[in-house]
């Protein structure tokens, strides 16, 4: 091994491990390999996107003791590519190897109740909410929180585990439909737009961030991200950056962290949730910035210096779901019009190596970059039309 005495920095030639074999793990592996690292993936799926491109694939469950021991034996440091990996597995690995982010940060991100309490401790505003863990707490919910969104405290992502409720009766039904598990009820607020900020923080406390991303969701799944200097009022952008930095610092976080926000009609900002990993809304950084979110994930894990990223091109990212393979209406998947799309200027196609397209499954993304925002938007609109995506409206990003 080529470490210094405390294990850091971990220099190229070493092996970096990742728990999780999805597309985020795949892009982390690509970034690490480009910088000269070997990679090891632990994932239960034999055909996982990251496992198929990595030097080592430990094909086992995330809680498997023998598998974790093998990963610790192969890797000089370990990260995770999604937040629902068991926190005790990270705790176990951290005994033998540097792990970033740590189990404590992951555990908070896995629980909306703990997450909101952390935001409040950091002085970052949330939407008004109530914790519902018991029938008594359900009965005590204030009328002012309705209409609202009932969210399960655990295992919710991409709009899953969420129900809109307008009345107290709907709230009771929704909680029972959720299995009476711990939930959070959030008041519905007049939303102007959604945005996110990605920060990277090293073990030495050094912290850098990307420009705030403006996001459009459809059916609870990120559909479009637009990033350029005019994508939101400067006061909102700065508030989002300050809040994301406070949240990362308050966790003593190490790694890449995405914080999602709601910008409200009155110009204020409330935090929605955090993702302790690279994020879909940051994929544009691979082409539009001089350092990507995945390279910063490598740097934070390996204890290398963090260069402040610089965006050199306006960018639009389109999420590509499996639905695109079924636009003809049949049951048999048909490849989208990649040749036509790739004829457009400034197009960068990323497909994640998932063998079977399924409706709602994230299959890839398309990033469009160019010299001017007008050029990028025009190409993005053409690409969306060619792929059968909903038309991009200027009103979505006004």
Structure description:
The protein is about 30% helix and about 25% strand. By secondary structure, the protein is an alpha+beta fold. The strands form three sheets. Strands 9, 10, 11, 12, 13, 14, 15, 16 and 17 form a nine-stranded antiparallel beta sheet that branches. A four-stranded parallel beta sheet has the order 3-2-1-4, with helices on both faces. A four-stranded antiparallel beta sheet has the order 5-8-6-7. A hairpin with a 5-residue loop joins strand 9 and strand 10 (about 205-210). Helix 1 packs across helix 10 (about 295-300) and helix 3 packs antiparallel against helix 4 (about 105-110). The longest helix is centred in the middle third of the chain and has 17 residues, at about 235-250. The radius of gyration is 21 Å and the shape is globular. It starts with 14 loop residues before the first strand and ends in an 11-residue tail after the last helix. Mean pLDDT is about 95; it is low at about 1-5.
Q: What are the salient characteristics of this protein?
A:
398 residues, nine-stranded antiparallel beta sheet, alpha+beta
* Cα-atom radius of gyration: 21 Å
Number of strands: 17
Shape: globular
| Terminus-to-terminus distance | 52 Å
- Largest beta-sheet characterization: 9 strands, antiparallel
Mean pLDDT: 94
Number of helices: 12
> Which residues form runs of ≥5 with pLDDT under 50?
1-5
Secondary-structure content class: alpha+beta
């Amino acid at each position: 091994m080529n470490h210094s005495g405390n294990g850091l920095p971990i220099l190229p030639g070493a092996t970096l491990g990742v728990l999780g074999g999805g597309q985020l793990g795949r892009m982390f592996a690509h970034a690490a390999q480009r910088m000269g690292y070997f990679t090891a993936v632990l994932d239960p799926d034999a055909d996982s996107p990251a496992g198929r491109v990595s030097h080592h694939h430990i094909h086992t469950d995330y809680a498997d003791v023998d598998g974790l021991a093998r990963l610790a034996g192969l890797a000089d440091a370990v990260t995770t590519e999604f937040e629902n990996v068991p926190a005790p597995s990270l705790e176990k690995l951290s005994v033998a190897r540097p792990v970033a982010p740590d189990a404590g940060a992951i555990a908070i991100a896995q629980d909306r109740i703990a997450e909101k309490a952390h935001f409040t401790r950091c002085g970052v505003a949330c939407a008004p909410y109530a914790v519902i863990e018991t029938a008594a707490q359900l009965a005590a919910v204030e009328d002012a929180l309705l209409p609202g969104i009932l969210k399960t405290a655990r295992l919710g992502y991409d709009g899953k585990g969420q129900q809109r409720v307008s009345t107290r009766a709907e709230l009771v039904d929704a909680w029972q439909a959720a299995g009476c598990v711990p939930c959070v009820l959030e008041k519905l607020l007049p939303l102007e737009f959604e945005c996110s900020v990605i920060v990277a923080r090293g073990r030495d406390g050094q912290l850098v961030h990307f420009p705030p991303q403006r996001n459009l969701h459809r059916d609870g799944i990120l559909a479009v991200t637009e990033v350029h200097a005019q994508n939101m009022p400067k006061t909102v952008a700065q508030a989002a950056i300050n809040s994301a930095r406070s949240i990362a610092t308050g966790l003593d976080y190490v790694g890449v962290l995405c914080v999602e926000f709601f910008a409200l009609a009155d110009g204020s900002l409330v935090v929605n949730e955090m993702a302790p990993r690279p994020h879909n809304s940051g994929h544009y950084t691979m082409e539009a910035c001089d350092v990507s979110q995945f390279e910063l994930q490598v740097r934070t894990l390996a204890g290398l210096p963090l260069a402040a990223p610089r965006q050199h091109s306006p960018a639009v990212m389109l999420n590509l779901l499996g639905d695109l393979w079924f636009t003809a209406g049949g049951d048999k998947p048909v490849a989208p019009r990649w040749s036509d799309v790739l004829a457009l200027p400034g197009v960068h196609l990323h497909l994640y190596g998932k063998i079977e397209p399924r409706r709602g499954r994230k299959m890839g993304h398309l990033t469009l970059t160019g010299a001017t925002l007008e050029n990028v938007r025009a190409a993005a609109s053409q690409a969306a039309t060619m792929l059968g995506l909903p038309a991009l409206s200027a009103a979505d990003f006004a």
